[in-house]
Amino acid sequence: MKYEVNEKKYSTLIKNIHTHFSQAEETLWDKRNKINILHHEGEILTVKSFKIPHFINKIAYTFFRNSKAYRSYHNSLRILDFVPKPIGYVEFFRFGFLHDSYFICQKYEYDFTIREPLLDKDFPNKALLLKQFAKFTHTLHINGIAHLDYSPGNILVKEISENQYEFKIVDVNRMKFKIYTKKESLESFSKLWAVDEDLKSIIEAYAKLIDMNKEEALSIVLQASQKHKNKKNFKKRLKGRKVVD
User: Fold this and answer.
1) What confidence score (pLDDT) does residue 44 get?
2) Which of 117, 111, 83 is nearest to 193 (CA)?
3) Looking at the predicted structure, is the pLDDT value of residue 151 above 90?
4) What's the pTM?
5) What does the radius of gyration of the chain's CA atoms come to, in whole angstroms?
6) For position 238, what pLDDT does the model report?
7) Contact at 8 Å (CB) between 180 and 188?
8) Rounded CA separation 11/210 (Å)
9) Contacts by residues 56-65 (CB-CB < 8 Å, ≥ 24 positions apart)
């Protein structure tokens, strides 16, 4: 076993994470990875259990690159203002190879993800929300934070006061720390899977922040968005699944 925690009081929890995780009464997600909610000494924690890697990845994560749990924790430590508070991570090994791993953070009490306003044309306060989302994204970019899976489910939103929203990002194991070019900044919106009208609202606000012509900015984003949709729909067709416009 290998682990790190940001406070010693969590060490016992980490060392016994298998038991705590299996006894959790609430599950947030259970597909490729699994996310459970734990209640621990008056705190509510989110624990993500990563899928056991296949043999090739066992070798890769053991000898050549850091695990997803390790990256989730250490990336979070670098961007504390933008993520739920990280608690720690733990890795378990069998026969010398990585077997299973967990990332633990405090549960962030958000109201919705950015997906909801993007799917609902009548979402309350939508114009202001998307404008603030554009500003949040710009703050990430000027701080050299490049989330490589900037998709709707990974962007949490909390209404902290009337007409004021707070944003947090999750699933941060796939990241780079670099200063985006303007084109790269705009292309990062492509995974939102938003309709053109919503992308236009976001990009008009973002273009002002980067001092760029809004028509040129929107053209870059729409092309990148359609390219992403085409790629995803092609994969769905190969699997016989329904495509989405």
Assistant:
1) 97
2) 117
3) yes
4) 0.92
5) 19
6) 73
7) yes
8) 44
9) 58/97, 58/98, 58/99, 59/97, 61/98, 62/93, 62/96, 62/97, 62/98
